[in-house]
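Our preliminary data section would be incomplete without showing what the modeling component actually yields. Below, a chain of 440 amino acids is followed by its predicted structure, encoded as tokens that our downstream tools consume directly.
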Amino acid sequence: MRKKILLTAIICGIFIAILLYTLIISTIIFLDCSSELSQIELLKQNVENVDFDWKNTVVPKKYVRIDQAAEDADYEYIYNGESIDFISYSETWDEELLKELETELYNNVHGDEINYIEKIEVVDGETEEYSGYYTSEPISFIIPISYYGLFPNQAAFMIPSNLTTIRLTGADRRKTVKEMARTLSHEYGHHFTYFYFDLNKNDSDLKSDYAKLRYETDTPVKIYGEPETREYYLNNHMWDLGEIAAEDYSFFMGSELSKRKIEYKDCAQLLRIYAKSERKYKNLECLSTYDAFNVSPHENPALRPPNQVEGLADYFYSFVDEQAPEYTFITDIPHFNLEYKRSSKNKYKILWDKPFDDKNIIYTLVGYDEDNKIVEVPKSIKGDAKYSYAYIGHQTYDSGNMHYWFDDNIPDREFIRYRIIALFPDNSVYYSQPLDVEHK
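Predicted structure:
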């Protein structure tokens, strides 16, 4: 009897050992992503009711590649990049420009999160007051499991996740990658920060690690996570925590092209350029955009610049295999001594000091409305400039028999808030104290 019990125990032990061995081998093969996983197909499903934390899921993009050609029949051009589709709905943006856009995308600092970008779209016109926006669509990856009949037929493993689409608008107006770079960097910043920062687009975001670093109790408007209405969101765009995070990403991790600097001329300088060459005047880049990094390093100038928030750069770079750059951290408050003088009717002069010794610093005078939105950029100068002032208002200039006049209409505004933005060679930024001017 004992022999039978012992024999039965040995047989059971052997069977269990074989079963465990088989399960271990199957698990190893599964984790190694064997050739069986090449059967993976991307099935878009509604998984809104599935509780998951998609930012922790890593599925190589090569397994989820899809061809957009059938879906986007009305596109003008399409470029199937290495792992992302670039689709143009604009006659202006051809395949060569889309290839350049791919290069520009990868010039932004990135990590594994870039595998979850599905496509970049370029369209004409401004869409609902946005120069760009991103959407993240819930999907599920279906992985069939089949190993020598060990699993039931149709057995599969489902990984819920999200794929992002970035859409850049105004393609008929912004006809180069240089002009799109800042918007692309900002929208990718949304993808990056929502991937890693545990942000959920509601007021719980204010308890996140990022918000604890960034939130300032002395801000004039409350930073919010979930807008009350769409109108509230548009009017308070710069105070949305998700928008602040995207701007911080662009500041720290955006490409060099997204941080382009532009020299701005005051109305007296512009008048002389026009008098000498109308063609040269029309080609001045400063007339067409306030998007330059020395003008708007961050959408919200009422917050501390990102480089002046201790630990913030390191936090962003903690999610990628790169070290955060070194930034200039200002401890002693410098004095710019902004001064506004009226020299005659509708003619004014703004003066300021250059408190830093570095001659490569760019000082840019920027004018804002009551909501800290940019309305004018009168002038920028280098640190080695002999004079630091800007003329605004009505200007005249005589050349030979010609009499020229120019009016920038700045004094027509009842209120303007001026700041000097000091941009260091390492892309660090410091803002002067604001100077509020009321025109009577």
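Confidence is low (pLDDT under 50) at residues 33-72. The chain has two domains: 35-214, 263-438. Preliminary results of this kind motivate Aim 1 of the renewal.
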